[in-house]
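Please check our next protein.
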Amino acid sequence: MVPLRLDLATAPQPAPSVRPVSDGALGFLNHLRFVSMTCRAKRRADLFEACALLHATRSASQEAHAEALMRCLAQALGKQPRLYAPGTVEMTFDESWLLRLGQAIAVGDEGSVAFLLKSRVLPEHRRLVRFLVGRISEFFALI
């Protein structure tokens, strides 16, 4: 039997390293959180219909794309996503996933984009979710 050294057993463990998030990335996330809150009372929309409307109106704003994403995200994921209130420092898994997807699209990392979409989004919705997140991320410095 190996004796346990008390000084090693009680030494404080270092905090897990947390990757710092840029101000642009926090802006992106807080924007989606705010839009999600405003969409709670609205009816859910079909992802295909929402994107068809956005394609038809080329002048659609960042707000319209974010609203379409938040109203249809549950359909694309197959479950209701969890988002915190705007300004919250912590992130849910869904928020972290959205942020990583936006960052991967912003830098053109197609491998990561494909992985992130395949890991959570139903196959028939991947192209549309990529389109919406890509259009929203154009307005923020996510890197």
Summary: Residues 14-18 have pLDDT under 50 and may be disordered. The chain has one domain: 22-137. Residues 22-137 form one domain.
